[in-house]
Amino acid sequence: MEKLPQKPPEELILTGLVDTLELLVAQAQAYERALPLDNYPARAAVAMLGELARQALSEARDVAARVTPSTPAAHPFSPREYQVLTLVAQGLTNREIAYRLGISDRTVQFHINMIFNKTGAQSRTEAVAMALSRRWLEVET
Questions:
Q1: Residue 48 to residue 123: CA distance in whole angstroms
Q2: In the 8-state DSSP scheme, what is residue 74?
Q3: Dist. CA 97–CA 120, nearest whole Å
Q4: Which of 8, 89, 111, 117 has its Cβ near the most Cβ atoms within 10 Å?
Q5: Class of residue 46 by CB neighbours under 10 A (exposed 0-12, middle 13-18, buried 19+)
Q6: DSSP code of residue 5
Q7: If we measure between CA atoms, which residue out of 135, 137, 140 comes closest to residue 85?
């Protein structure tokens, strides 16, 4: 029976921390959107907690990048989502991506929304930056 490779404990801890912080950021965003606009104290508190979670997430990712090995991580995307993200990284618009892949603009937007859900990103730029920092995408030179 072949033994699976073991990750170092610090890598496991950092991976768990990053995952937890990503969840906290997503939850804070959801709570902030769900709160009534006139409930300023609650919205401000949730926004502040979300910002703290984002800052902690950024720092945890920086530490994880220094601790983890340099081999690329497996990306969480479907083959089509990966194609779309690659084209987004090249600066193409949804319409250009749709034309290139032979799909509708609406389907491109669906794939981008799935990428946002999987990464926690709120913009195309953030999704590409996250994918590059996690080595899910490589910059072509």
A1: 20
A2: P
A3: 22
A4: 111
A5: buried
A6: P
A7: 137
